UniProtKB/TrEMBL annotation:
Pfam families xref list: ABC_tran
Record organism: Halohasta litorea
Family annotation (SMART domains): AAA (SM00382)
Entry keyword set: ATP-binding, Nucleotide-binding, Transport
A GO term, aspect molecular function: ATP binding
Protein name: ABC transporter ATP-binding protein
Length: 321
């Protein structure tokens, strides 16, 4: 659905995007991740046909991104989406439906259905009097008004309260079921991990890692094992609950600790694997923290885990030998 080949954008001597190539399949949610200034928005705008590439090509829904026809197949949600404050959601969306020549009966049905799915109740309230979350939902509904094949969402859920964040992320995930293809950029790596099928990580204009978060974790991350014993060993440090903990990076080392504990008359009582979080991988790969956007809210949806909390999984300790 999207084919990007050798894409490059320079401003004078400065290269904002360098030799970027990737493909996105129909129905995929594809994340574009990177620190401030990495070239994410420039990439998204080239895909949306808003910026002309210096070199390379971007094909969206079978059209060159610069081809005006492509825009009929695209819904673009910029990071900041100014809305007409004096209009209501219904009049605003009808106005955009008219711009896309959507027949009025189709538009009415589409608007009602999309606002239902987004759970937006106040359809005849002045947009200027609505909350930030409601306005974001109106902007998301606008991105779908022409029933596009491809959606480009720049920070769709940033700066929203946790409930609205949850609802926007869920809505984005569900677009996959309608065979929509989504390019998704966000600073909150929890948002990225919970929504995207595959991602690219960009740094200083270049793609430095690509794949599923799981594959990137396997390629660049290192699993460590936190081994707890009921006896003090040379490798362990005391914990607040009276146990002793060592952090090692292989199962061989875990077994070595089990043997050492048994030889000293004790045992290993718990082993936990520690998977690096996307945040930790990101820091390793770019050497930089993921800085927040202008309106960042580091919220994880209710029940979700924090972006900077790595996954800890218990492993059954073996019987001491
Ligand atoms: N019109 C322009 N003229 C000159 N430099 C530009 C222009 N637009 C972007 N840049 C530069 O290109 C680089 C990439 O910008 P871009 O907005 O794509 O980064 P980003 O990854 O989206 O960053 P952020 O996360 O801060 O939004 C930045 O260094 C930016 O200053």
């Amino acid at each position: 659905m999207i084919r990007v080949s050798g894409l490059r954008k320079t401003y004078g001597d400065f290269a904002a995007v360098v030799d970027s190539s990737f493909e996105v399949e129909t129905g995929e949610i594809f994340g574009v991740v990177g620190p401030n200034g990495a070239g994410k928005t420039t990439t998204l705008k080239m895909l949306a046909g808003l910026i002309e590439p210096t070199a390379g090509s971007a094909e969206v829904a079978g059209f060159d991104a610069q081809n005006a026809e492509m825009r009929h197949r695209l819904g673009f949600l910029p990071e900041e989406s100014p809305l007409y404050q004096d209009m209501t959601p219904t009049s605003y969306l009808t106005f955009f439906a008219d711009l896309y020549d959507v027949p009025r009966s189709v538009a009415n049905e589409r608007i009602a259905e999309t606002l239902d799915r987004l759970d937006l109740e106040y359809r005849d309230r002045r947009i200027g009097d609505m909350s930030k979350g409601m306005k974001r939902k109106v902007a998301i509904a606008r991105s779908l008004i022409n029933d596009p094949d491809v959606l480009i969402y720049d920070e769709p859920a940033s700066g929203l309260d946790p409930l609205t964040t949850n609802s926007v992320l869920e809505f984005t995930r569900e677009l996959r079921d309608d065979d929509k293809t989504v390019i998704f950029s966000a600073h909150n790596l929890y948002h990225v991990e919970s929504v995207c099928d595959r991602i690219i990580i960009m740094n200083e204009g270049r793609i430095i890692a690509r794949g599923t978060v799981e594959a990137i974790r396997e390629e660049y991350g290192e699993t460590t094992y936190h081994v707890f014993s009921d006896i003090d060993l040379p490798e362990t440090d005391p914990t607040s609950d009276g146990r002793h903990r060592a952090v090692v990076d292989s199962m061989d080392a875990v077994e070595g600790l089990q043997d050492a504990a048994a030889a000293a008359g004790g045992s290993v009582v718990d082993i936990r694997t520690h998977e690096p979080s996307l945040e930790e991988l990101f820091l390793d790969l770019t050497g930089r923290q993921m800085a927040g956007p202008r309106t960042a809210a580091a919220t994880a949806p209710a029940g979700g885990r924090d972006a900077d909390t790595a996954a800890d999984t218990a492993v059954e300790p073996e019987e001491p030998r």
